[in-house]
Design a protein that fits this description.
mainly alpha; 16 helices
């Protein structure tokens, strides 16, 4: 027995030593198929994506959202540069071609006053886009400041703000919008102000609801401990963390504003002549939809394309910014 122990000691191994780990065979290391089959190796080979690139990749998975972006960009280009392809302005009248169907001279035809429908569509789309984007952006800014401020201060400020919001939500805002815009001769700049004043309440209430949880976060408490002022905390620490919610509401707000402006102009309370918007064109074409369908068809098609594209973009942004969305997973492609 002594001889056996001496032999084991001399060989440098003991009975309790674990067996030496065998190195991976060269064939396994060199085989790319085997490496790709290993999930750990595949994860190590995958480059780290930044947050912006991750959102972009998830957004691009939604094919309808991509289609919506393309349509919206084409509409914007049409509103900006479409007038370069015609020699007529929206206010020019061709008295030799009254209510003429589409032709080589007037691509979209003319209306009862001899105005070129193509030129009117370009100007009307530009006017409707200007109103919709401006109102949506201003509404988001006002709602973000008021909603987050009410959540941060709490107490009486919160109760008073919510009381005002709930009161304005039950007021028949559409009738007030119609009366005010009609009283002020349908100026589109005044229409932007009026639509903003009566359009921020619902968004502000949603922002307040989300901000009530953000005010309890550690970074807000740390900012208060450091003596940072309340306005700076709201603008630098609360509102930026509502970015995804604000972006989605900004996009969908464009759709709501287009529909509101179109409805007001259609009823004669929005944009007034001699100015032109998609709503005024729809109002002019509604009375002649059977005898001159092109007067209604072209502006209606632009309204449908605009609302459809922004709806697709809004849905795509919501899915891309929501980590629980099915489009954010590998198998959730549409």
């Amino acid at each position: 027995m002594a001889t056996d122990m001496t032999t084991d000691t001399a060989s440098g191994a003991t009975p309790t030593d674990p067996p030496a780990r065998q190195a991976d065979p060269p064939a396994r290391q060199a085989d790319p198929t085997a490496r790709q089959a290993d999930p750990l190796a595949r994860q190590a080979d995958t480059p780290h994506l930044g947050l912006g690139r991750l959102y972009l990749r998830r957004f691009l998975r939604n094919r309808l959202a991509v289609v919506g972006v393309v349509i919206f960009v084409l509409l914007v280009l049409f509103s900006l540069f479409g007038g370069l392809f015609t020699s007529y302005a929206y206010s020019d009248a061709d008295f030799a071609a009254l209510t003429q169907p589409p032709s080589a001279t007037h691509w979209f035809g003319t209306n009862q006053g001899g105005n070129d429908v193509y030129a009117s569509a370009v100007h009307g789309l530009r006017r409707s886009l200007a109103i919709a984007v401006s109102v949506s952006a201003l509404t988001i800014v006002v709602a973000a400041v008021i909603g987050s401020s009410a959540a941060y201060f709490g107490g009486r400020v919160e109760k008073a703000t919510l009381g005002v919001i709930h009161f304005l939500l039950v007021v028949p805002s559409f009738l007030i919008l119609a009366l005010v815009s009609h009283r002020l001769a349908g100026d589109w700049r005044v229409l932007i102000v009026v639509l903003t004043v009566f359009g921020w309440m619902s968004t502000a209430r949603v922002i307040w609801s989300v901000s009530t949880s953000l005010r309890e976060r550690d970074y807000v408490t740390a900012a208060e401990f450091m003596g940072i002022s309340a306005p700076r905390i709201i603008l630098r620490h609360i509102i930026p963390n509502l970015g995804s919610l604000l972006i989605v509401n900004l996009t969908l707000g464009v759709v709501a504003t287009v529909l509101s402006e179109t409805a007001l102009s259609f009823l004669g309370f929005g944009v007034q002549t001699p100015d032109v918007s998609l709503g005024t064109m729809l109002a002019d074409g509604a009375s002649t939809v059977t005898s001159a369908p092109w007067l209604f068809a072209f502006p209606a098609g632009l309204v449908v394309l605009l609302t459809m594209s922004m709806t697709f973009v809004g849905d795509g942004l919501r899915d891309a910014l929501d980590p629980t969305s099915v489009t954010g997973t590998a198998g959730g492609r549409r």
